Amino acid sequence: HSFDLECTPTLQAFRNASRAVTREGQAKHNTMRHEKNDRFSVNDRSQWVLGFDNKAKLELYKGKAQALGDRLGQLEVELRKIDEEENAQQERLLHCQTLSNLSWNDVDVGSLLTRIADLTDRLAKERAARPDLAVLDERLKAQEAEYLAASGNKSDEDARGRQIDAEIVGLRDKLAELGFADPAGLCDQIEGWRSGKLRALRSDAAREAFDAMLLPLLAAFAKGPEPERALLRWEQLLTNLPSAVNLFRLLEARPALGELLARILGLAPPLADALARRADLLDPLIDASAFDLPGSTEELIAQLSSGEADDDYERLLDRVRRRVGELRFKLGVQLIEGSRDPIEVGQALCGVAEAALSVLADAATAEFARVHGKVPGGELLIVGYGRLGGGVLTHASDLDVVFLFTGDHSAESNGDRPLGATLYFNRLAQRVVAALSVPTAEGALYEVDTRLRPSGAQGPISVSIDAFERYQRESAWTWEHMALARARVLHGPTAGREELERVIRNVLEMPRDPAKLRADVLDMRSTMAQHKPARSPLDIKLARGGLVDVEFITQYLQLRDHAGLVPALPDALAALVQAGKLDPAICAAHRTQARFLVAARLLMPDGEEPPASAQAVLASACEAGDWAGLTEQLAESRRVVAAAWHAAFGEVLEIT
Questions:
Q1: Quick check: 542 and 534 in contact, CB under 8 A?
Q2: Helix (H) / strand (E) containing 539
Q3: Considering only CA atoms, which of 451, 565, 572, 465 is closest in space to residue 508?
Q4: What is the pLDDT of residues 340-375, one digit of tens each?
Q5: Higher pLDDT, 248 or 481
Q6: What kind and span of H or E run contains 620?
Q7: Phi, psi for 337 (deg, rounded to 5)
Q8: pLDDT in tens, 92-137
Q9: Which residues are paired to 21 by β-bridges?
Q10: Which positions ≥6 away from 428 have C-beta within 8 Å?
Q11: pLDDT of residue 496 exceeding 50
Q12: Helix (H, G, I), strand (E, B), or coil: what is residue 306?
């Protein structure tokens, strides 16, 4: 290898070295073997191995390739010019040759007419003598007719081409009138869509339907909140759809739906992503009932459970995903349209999640029992923690759950493949998690987090109620009891739910050392602030004086004073205010922050300051006059929480 040779600047140094190479390419591998490698200049960086990384080498090759391509293009142009000149010269020479061979007789009209008559006579005699020539003549006439027809079609195509060019010019002018920043570029983009590269626009019917609704839709985009962003997401939607004829016809028939679509694509990235996967989510929006709240959890369970008589487990999973997706989408539209308070939307999202969890848990249990039977006296319980336990979710929320079971942990199931109770309910819990989270043909449903279970990720996914109570009383950390303050039993038999609720209540009412509790809570919050700092002042969940601090204050007072022991944070705050533990101002501060969080997860999912159009929707959702008013409301709410923090812990919060 040349890269392990010593580089020598002079011939004397080359002679003295045992293994060396010169700049000219002379290489010496030992005292007996020399070689000359002058195929490449030593300055050719593309041949370097050391001191020149592959990225730089690739850029060098790209530069060379570009230069060669440019040179080849120039040579092709020059060659075409030479060919054209040669052809023109050959044609002139042929004409000259023809003229030089002419005599007077050749240009004499009388002689020419005589020759034509003679040839006509000879042709008639040949046709009489050979009938097959008549057949050939008919074929020639037929070919001539076809040629003329083809020439006519070409003329029609040329006319159509000119018409399309005129339409493009007209479309460009119309786009300019609508106010698009780059009408010509958008025109090219639209022609790219129609060129056949998109599956949704390859059929004549699809292109016809597309053309019929295009201008009204573009007008809706132009009037919408973020035209350029809406166009980009519209293109993503078209790219993902295998067929879109029905969507195009729906938009043609319902122009107002185009305006709603423009707001969805321009304002709410999560809804735009959902539409890109399922364009039929727009269909229910033509009905006014789409702007109603979805009903109680019991009604939702009945709605998600209903299906065909022969539906199997896989079809049920798909059906629940499809219907939950429709419900979540409609709730998102209600939020951006301002027809619902964000808190109402968050509560409805939680109800949908609870219903899906219940239906899928029952289905997974029945499917599991077909193989392993049931554990006598044992039932699965599911507890919701965090926002799920508190009863308000956002469009980005995952499901924090803990699985428990009733009955004797030493019992055994009675099916064809029996399992011990602990193993049985651990495997069943895994089935339920999979039913909620594994993507199917209809996509994914929810992310599920089970790390709040006893012993965290190191512990079994499901334990008995007795083991849960023992762990909470003897081994749990303070932060686990804080999390337990928002726990709510969501699924299971009535007797088991009542027993578990009693256990949770008794654990929360355990006597505690106030000083140790305070120290544990402050240490936990400090650790959390270090490992999960707020991304900006708009990160109302993690920012100091935000929702996490509200939760820590509430849970600290709940555990210290055994007051307000309910999982819903607004109810807990109201009870603590009633008990004289908190200033009433914190309730309004929490409501402002909770509203903003639900809306922001949909309208600014990346946490960055949103565009002006989304700012206006956020301000309206949070009952502020404008964005400046909203930011001031948020700042004031954080100051209220900071004051409550100081009152509870005697510690000053730095609000930035």
A1: yes
A2: none
A3: 565
A4: 999 999 999 999 999 999 999 999 999 999 999 999
A5: 481
A6: helix 612-621
A7: -85, -10
A8: 877 777 766 666 555 566 666 777 777 777 777 777 777 776 677 7
A9: 7, 27
A10: 364, 365, 368, 380, 462
A11: yes
A12: coil
What is the C-alpha separation between 144 and 159, in angstroms, rounded? 23
d(CA 34, CA 252) in angstroms, rounded, equals 80
Question: SS3 of 198, please?
Answer: coil
- Is residue 160 over pLDDT 60? no
Residue 302 and residue 356 in contact, taking contact as beta carbons nearer than 8 Å: no
- Pick from 493, 256, 486, 289: which is nearest to 393 by CA? 486
Query: What number is the average pLDDT over the span 470-488?
Result: 96
Read off the pLDDT band of 606 (50, 70, 90).
confident
CA distances from 392 to 395, 534, 592 (A): 10, 21, 14
**Band (1; pLDDT cuts 50, 70, 90):** very low
Distance CA 186, CA 176 (A): 10
Question: What does the alpha-carbon distance between residue 151 and residue 426 come to, in Å, rounded to a whole number?
Answer: 77
Provide the whole-model pTM. 0.73
Proportion of the chain above pLDDT 70, given as a percent:
89
- Give, to the nearest 10 degrees, the angle between helix 269-277 and helix 255-267: 120
Helix, strand, or coil here: 36?
strand
Structure tokens that stand for 300 in this block:
């939702």
Which position has the higher pLDDT, 9 or 169? Answer: 9
The chain-wide mean pLDDT, for the chain, equals: 86
At position 205, the amino acid (one-letter code) is A
**CB distance 589 to 545 below 8 Å:** no
Helix (H, G, I), strand (E, B), or coil: what is residue 71? helix
Task: State whether residue 417 is helix, strand or coil.
Answer: coil
Task: List CB contacts of 419: < 8 A, sequence separation 6 or more.
Answer: 372, 412, 413, 427
Q: How far is CA 77 from the centre of its chain?
A: 46
- Amino acid found at 453: R
Q: How far apart are CA 102 and CA 97, in angstroms?
A: 9
The HSE-up count of residue 35 (CA atoms within 13 Å, CB side) is 9
Spatial CA neighbour of 358 closest among 409, 309, 303: 303
Beta strands in 355-398 (DSSP E): 380-384
- How far apart (Å, rounded) are the C-alpha atoms in residues 22 and 42? 9
Q: In whole angstroms, how large is the CA radius of gyration of the chain?
A: 40
List the structure tokens of 586: 């914190």
Q: Contact at 8 Å (CB) between 348 and 402?
A: no
The amino acid at residue 379 is E
Burial class of residue 420 in the structure, from the number of CB atoms within 10 Å of its CB (0-12 exposed, 13-18 middle, 19+ buried)? middle
Cα(97)–Cα(107) distance, rounded to whole angstroms? 15
Cβ neighbours for 254, distance < 8 A, ≥ 6 positions apart: 286
408 within 8 A of 457, measured Cβ to Cβ? no
Q: What are phi and psi of 540, to 5 degrees?
A: -70, -15
Identity of the residue numbered 265: L
List the single range of 305-314, 432-441, 547-556, 594-603 with lowest mean pLDDT. Answer: 305-314
- Judge whether 235 and 297 are in contact, CB under 8 Å: no
CA-based nearest residue to 329, from 383, 378, 280 = 280
Q: What order of strands is seen across the sheet that includes strand 26-28?
A: 6-7, 20-21, 26-28, 34-36
Between the CA of residue 599 and those of 243, 430, 617, what are the distances in Å? 32, 32, 9
Higher pLDDT, 51 or 249: 249
- Give the tokens for residue 227: 């035209």
Query: Rounded to an integer, what distance in angstroms lies between the CA atom of residue 350 and that of residue 368?
Result: 26
Mean pLDDT score, 557-569:
97
